[in-house]
Amino acid sequence: MNYPHPLLAREGWPFIAASFLVSIGTWYFLGFGVSLPLWVITIFVVQFFRDPPRAVPSIENAVLSPADGRIVKVEKCMDPYAGREALLISVFMNVFNVHSNRASVDGTVRGVKYFPGLFVNADLDKASSENERNAVVIDAVIAGQQQTVTLVQVAGLIARRILCYVNPGESLHKGQRYGFIRFGSRVDVYLPLSATPLVAPGDKVSATSTVLATL
Questions:
Q1: Helices marked H in 31-114 — which ranges?
Q2: Between residues 126 and 2, which one has the greater pLDDT?
Q3: What pairing do the DSSP bridges indicate for beta strands 145-155 and 107-115?
Q4: 58, 171, 185, 206: which one is catalytic?
Q5: Which of 87, 95, 147, 196 is the least crowded, having the fewest Cβ atoms under 10 Å away?
Q6: How far apart are CA 116 and CA 159, in angstroms?
């Protein structure tokens, strides 16, 4: 889970290698002009799988963004994974965002639940309940109080693979890499109703670096 940041996500190494080999092979046998579109694809693949290190803000009661992207929702609703009313903050990732997912809080994983589903546009409201998704429920102690934070990886129109590397009972630390989603998708963050949101729909956020809310 927590590996020295290689700048390029390990999930992308086979795709990057394959794209590079096809591009250089086409260049060698057919010429650079023919291979140019393949080099463009290679550059896209490399940028998609970039995984830069991020500094963790030193704010004790902060809930950090689990993903890069754009805020598409901040509202009160039911958290179906922890069975409670909650504040939902949704982060939509397009294909140009970093898709490595990071823990929002320090805590212990209470449960991990995977749900098969559809692959509609992750920017739509119904994606949270209808798309393929994976929920991680975390028991966190923030400012001396027990809190529950739920992180839900949601597949999108292009995304076809959600990767999660944590299991119930494991400890998580703020900014720790716990999963990856290939291509456009979103992450839903369910917080206690007492949380104070610091972002609004339309805001751009960065995994770990951006504080979504305080508890």
A1: 32-48
A2: 126
A3: unpaired
A4: 185
A5: 196
A6: 13
> For residue 62, what are the β-bridge partners?
214
Reported pTM: 0.89
Residue 42: pLDDT band by 50, 70, 90 thresholds? very high
What SS3 string covers 133-199? EEEEEEEEEECCEEEEEEEEEEECCCCCCEEECCCCCCEECCCCEEEEECCCEEEEEEECCCCEECC
- Nearest of 185, 154, 144, 178 to residue 80 by alpha carbon: 154
* DSSP strand pairing (171-172 vs 107-115): antiparallel
pLDDT digits (tens, 9 = 90+) for 138-196: 999 877 788 999 999 998 766 567 899 999 999 999 999 999 987 668 899 999 999 99
Helix axes 32-48, 13-30, angle to 10 degrees: 170
CA distance 195 to 84: 14
* Sign of the torsion formed by the C-alpha atoms of 54, 60, 65 and 71: negative
Whether 62 contacts 211, CB under 8 Å: yes
185 is catalytic: yes
CA 137 to chain CA mean position, Å: 15
What's the residue count for the chain?
Answer: 215
